[in-house]
Amino acid sequence: MTLATPSLVTVYERAPRFDGALVLGISQSGASPDIVAVLAEARRQGALTAVITNKTESDLARQGTWSST
Questions:
Q1: Would you give the distance in Å from CA 43 to the centre of its chain?
Q2: pLDDT tens string 43-66
Q3: Residues whose CB is less than 8 angstroms from the CB of residue 7 and which lie 6 or more positions away in sequence, other chains included
Q4: What pTM did the predictor assign?
Q5: Closest among 2, 35, 34 to 18, alpha carbons compared
Q6: Which residue from 65, 30, 27, 62 is spatially nearest to 47, judged by alpha carbons?
């Protein structure tokens, strides 16, 4: 298990390697650009992603591997 600091992706443009990982994004609004960027990069790398948010139509919700939207 590891913690990916969102600023690695958005500020330093250095994404961690997500191979073989489950990446979980949690945001009440689903609008945090840092968290959305981490999940988008994880999906780009082929990682399994899951999200927890109150907003099913949010940018973050769309980054879950399986989505109802």
A1: 8
A2: 999 999 999 999 989 999 988 866
A3: 34
A4: 0.77
A5: 2
A6: 65
> Rounded to an integer, what distance in angstroms lies between the CA atom of residue 39 and that of residue 50?
8
69 has a pLDDT exceeding 60 = no
**Which one-letter amino acid corresponds to residue 3?**
L
Contacts of 53 (CB under 8 A, 6+ apart): 25, 26, 27, 28, 29, 30, 60, 61
Structural tokens at position 14: 């250095």
pLDDT digits (tens, 9 = 90+) for 13-47: 778 888 888 999 999 999 988 889 889 999 999 99
Instruction: Tell me the C-alpha distance between 53 and 13, whole Å.
Output: 25
How far apart CA 50 and CA 24 sit, in angstroms, is 5
